[in-house]
Design brief:
Elements lengths: L1 E6 L3 E7 L9 E6 L6 H12 L8 E6 L2 H14 L4 E4 L20 H14 L3 E6 L2 E7 L5 E8 L1 H11 L19 H31 L8 E5 L3 H4 L8 E2 L3 H27 L1
Parallel strand pairs: 1-4, 4-5, 6-9, 9-10
Antiparallel strand pairs: 1-2, 2-3, 6-7, 7-8
Helix pairs in contact: 1-2, 3-7, 4-5
Length: about 280
């Protein structure tokens, strides 16, 4: 089975997928991302969560949006899953997604694989919205190209900033309030944070959708608006533009990249055998 690992700024997500490249995950887990963790510590946590399923792992695909973790992640994979196929998605790795931006190396690996997963699901232009430490709204063309996108402070980051910078405000639970007209300070903050985030995303999706259509020779608008991320369950229900919520979008993208990488490797091996 393929073990996919997505190391995000706040949480690390893991999932086991069948070797045939199809079907849902047979196992998944989440843990807190610790930027100072060593590869050995990471392996201890991952193997502990996998338990008996560790023996099922036949290949590993991973990425990290935390630069400080990348070196240790690479060490964990090569040392503790030695002998297995492994792929770390980072700048320079072929994903099959053309990056039509000023500096492709600046685009986070998570945004690239999310674009790939969304495009493979719908086969047409789409918008990818991810609610995490940051909120990203990215555009994917009708040809599967990453066109760029918008990055805003995430809902939790905004909530923390309010509590720190405003003396009269305190941390609140991120839930949908009874009404946009908060009747107390807590509900007023929840309305601004959660409903405000939904309105922000709807506005950005509309603008991004027009950009996608303007760059398409046939003027095609997005066929889907796909949402993901740890905070998506809080906000998605209040977004008028989101058409689909895919919790494991990044992990599915990792699976797709690994499948393409393995196909290229096998093809090269076949050509070498034919020449021998």
């Amino acid at each position: 089975m393929l073990l996919c690992i997505d190391v995000g700024n706040t949480q690390t997500a893991l999932a086991l997928y069948p070797d045939d490249g199809g079907g849902p995950a047979v196992w998944d887990a989440r843990l807190r991302t610790e930027p100072r963790a060593t590869g050995d510590e990471m392996a201890l946590l991952v193997r502990g969560l996998l338990g008996a399923r560790t023996a099922d792992v036949g290949a590993v695909a991973a990425l990290s949006t935390v630069p400080a973790v990348m070196r240790e992640l690479r060490g964990m994979v090569t040392r503790h899953f030695a002998g297995l196929d492994h792929l770390l998605v980072e700048p320079g790795v072929r994903t099959g997604v053309p990056l039509l931006v000023d500096n492709p190396k600046e685009v986070g690996a998570d945004r690239v694989v999310q674009a790939l997963a969304a495009y493979e699901r719908h086969g047409g232009p789409c918008v990818v919205v991810v609610f995490g430490t940051s909120t990203t709204v990215d555009a994917v063309s009708a040809r599967g190209e990453f066109l760029g996108g918008a990055i805003a402070a995430g809902v939790a980051v905004s909530a923390e900033a309010l509590a720190v910078r405003a003396a009269a405000l305190r941390p609140v639970e991120l839930v949908v309030p009874r009404s946009v007209l908060g009747r107390n300070t807590v509900e007023s903050m929840q309305a601004g944070l959660v409903l405000g985030a939904a309105a922000q995303v709807d506005g950005l999706v509309a603008r991004v959708g027009r950009e996608i259509a303007a760059r398409d020779p046939e003027g095609r608008e997005p066929v889907a608006v796909v949402a993901s991320g740890g905070l998506a369950p809080v906000v998605v229900g209040e977004c008028a533009t989101v058409t689909e919520h895919v919790p494991d979008l990044t992990l599915l993208g990792l699976r797709s990249v690994h499948r393409r990488w393995r196909a290229r490797r096998d093809d090269r091996a076949t050509r070498r055998s034919a020449r021998a």
